[in-house]
Write a structure and sequence with these properties.
Elements (H helix, E strand, L loop, with lengths): L3 H8 L6 H7 L1 E2 L8 E4 L4 H4 L3 H11 L6 E7 L2 E6 L1 H14 L14 E5 L14 H16 L3 E5 L7 H13 L2 H7 L1 H14 L5 H14 L3 H24 L18 H9 L3 E4 L2 E4 L9 E4 L7 H16 L3 E5 L5 H13 L8 E4 L4 E3 L14 H19 L6 H16 L9 E3 L1 H4 L7 H18 L16 H11 L1 H11 L3 H20 L7 H24 L9
Parallel strand pairs: 5-6, 5-10, 10-11, 12-13
Antiparallel strand pairs: 1-2, 2-4, 3-4, 7-8, 8-9
Helix pairs in contact: 1-2, 5-19, 5-22, 6-20, 7-9, 7-10, 10-11, 12-13, 13-14, 15-16, 18-21, 18-22, 19-21, 19-22, 20-21, 21-22
């Protein structure tokens, strides 16, 4: 495809180097103003004229050709009009020649990105509150992989702390192995809840829990066997949910993995004089940086999250030599990440600047909040099951004869849940609504999936190879097709922007725009016709649309059914 930005930059006679000129060229916001725009405001100081005067002067000097057919100066901008039939053809050809991988790039080849996300807690329910970290982290994994990066997906398991001593005490007092194996985390969770109910009246339980956790740390055989039993039950259950969500991990190293890796970083901090004592605890003072002290070792000698996260970051750098390490964790942990990132920086680790907290808002259901200790949680599995059930009902009503209805219902229901966490800026809080996310007419995954299926239906109706006939360029030289193809053409940049901003919603928003533009195109222009050349031109646009929608959904972890 022609590099239109470079073509335009080469035509602008201004006192900036061509690379900078090219970087200033962007798609026009309004098709009526042209196809690409160049703002002249940055030139005002250098050329000592107003942006309006500069735009008029530069426009007069631009030589149009068969690619750039017109230029206008408007309010300090240079607006360029391209050969639109050629542009549509170029974009569509690029999409079709990419064989379903349009938007892929080699920009990240040779670089590694670690992504710490989902991070479930052993013995605790995998609930709706885990949706955002799981969906965002998984989407970023797929986006970076598409850009050529080596990606390491890390599930930093919550598998360390006194709560596991509590679980062992509860299990030995009230548990049943067969029931735990059959009922899974639900049974473990009920034991955890019972422990907290009994603890106020039986303080000896707390001491027993500490003793059992100490036995885990010392490698006691019975304690470790029970801990591994709890861990297996939890992971077996959550992995079935991950499979449904198209989520994968390359590392399951949790907090316990770093238990014996904290001493060296702590000693380094002591050697640098960064650790001080405060009421018997060991801290790094961060008052000069507008933060409270970072607590690393409690007065009883036990470590904290920050200690283990510092050890984990050091180990990951040594193990993976990452170029970036992302932590997809809720915004409530903003201070924690600022603190331990700063401690690593003060310790002299130059790569501390490559640690990024990818914060996000909270997820709740319409009927309120959740509490693990009180047993008031909504399992993510149950949310998926309910969404799939509702999708099945909608399909039965709209298309009762659809082949593979159960598979499609799974794709639609799961896709709807995932998209709900990816459709808006990640920092926004989400109130999850089944009716809204399963709306086939709203800005939802089912709407995108249905549009993609509609494209497939048109192509099937036209017959195999119909789009390969000689195409009539005039059939796609119209505003609706141009708007659609411009959006499709912006997809590769959207993938890069999503990675740069750690924001999958950049892709989500573009897919919605593409689907809406396609539906306007489809309403305004008859695709199947007796004119083979006209039909071929429009079928190619339909095929390109289907390809980009499917690819975009895949980067978000969402399947696109062939039929709906």
């Amino acid at each position: 495809m022609l590099n239109y930005k470079k073509l335009i930059a080469d035509k602008i006679d201004a006192p900036l180097d061509k690379t900078e000129l090219e970087s200033l060229v962007s798609p026009a916001a309004d098709d009526s103003f042209g196809d690409f725009a160049f703002p002249c405001f940055k030139l005002a100081r250098v050329m000592r004229q107003s942006p309006v005067q500069i735009a008029e002067k530069l426009a007069a000097a631009v030589q149009t050709d068969e690619h750039i057919v017109k230029v206008q100066a408007v309010n300090g901008y240079l607006n360029f009009f391209v050969n639109r039939a050629e542009y549509v053809s170029d974009v569509v050809n690029d999409v079709l020649s990419a064989n379903g991988l349009y938007g892929n790039s080699d920009m990240g080849v040779g670089k590694t990105v670690c992504i710490d996300y989902s991070s479930v807690n052993i013995c605790k329910s995998f609930h709706i509150g885990h949706l955002s970290t799981t969906a965002i982290g998984s989407a970023l994994y797929k986006i970076y992989a598409a850009l050529g990066y080596k990606v390491v997906g890390i599930n930093h398991l919550g598998d360390y702390g006194t709560q596991f001593g509590k679980m062992i005490v509860a299990f030995k007092l009230w548990g049943d192995r067969a029931k735990a194996e059959s009922d899974g985390v639900k049974e473990l969770q009920s034991l955890y809840v019972r422990f907290h109910k009994e603890e106020p009246d039986h303080p000896e339980l707390t001491e027993q829990a500490r003793e059992w956790f100490a036995r885990i740390e010392k490698g006691d055989a019975e304690a470790l066997e029970l801990f591994e039993f709890f861990k297996k039950i939890t992971l077996d259950e959550v992995k079935t949910v991950y499979d449904r969500l198209n989520v994968k991990f390359d590392s399951w190293n949790g907090e316990s993995f770093f238990n014996d890796k904290m001493d060296k970083p702590l000693q380094l901090l002591r050697d640098k004089g960064l650790i001080t004592e405060s009421q018997g605890a060991q801290v790094v003072e961060l008052e000069d940086y507008g933060m409270p002290p970072c607590l690393l070792v409690k007065s009883d000698g036990s470590s904290l999250y920050a200690t283990r996260d510092i050890a984990a970051a050091v180990w990951r750098k040594q193990e993976y030599d990452f170029d970036k390490c992302l932590y997809v964790v809720a915004y409530q942990q903003n201070l924690h990440f600022k603190q331990f990132f700063k401690v690593l920086e003060l310790a002299g680790f130059e790569w501390a600047k490559d640690l990024v907290h990818v914060a996000f808002g909270m997820v709740s259901l319409e009927d309120g909040a959740m509490s693990t200790r009180k047993g008031n949680v909504v399992l993510l599995k149950d949310v998926l099951d309910k969404a799939v059930s509702k999708a099945r009902d909608i399909i039965a009503d709209k298309n009762p004869d659809l082949d593979g209805r159960d598979k499609v219902a799974e794709q639609v229901g799961v896709g709807a849940v995932l998209f709900s966490a990816l459709e808006n800026s990640r920092i926004k809080d989400i109130v999850f609504s089944y009716d809204r996310v399963l709306n086939f007419d709203g800005e939802t995954a089912p709407y995108l999936q249905y549009t993609c299926a509609r494209c497939n239906s048109i192509l099937e109706k036209a017959g195999a190879g119909a789009y390969e006939a000689e195409a009539d360029a005039s059939a796609v030289d119209n505003p609706e097709t141009l708007r659609l193809v411009k959006l499709i053409g912006s997809f590769p940049q959207a993938v890069k922007d999503a990675a740069a901003k750690y924001e999958p919603s950049v892709i989500s928003a573009l897919l919605i725009d593409i689907a809406q533009a396609f539906n306007r195109f489809y309403i305004e222009h008859r695709v199947i016709s007796d004119n083979a050349a006209e039909q071929s031109a429009r079928l190619r646009v339909v095929r390109a649309t289907a390809s980009v929608l499917k690819r975009g959904l895949a980067l978000l972890g969402i399947d696109a059914p062939e039929k709906m």
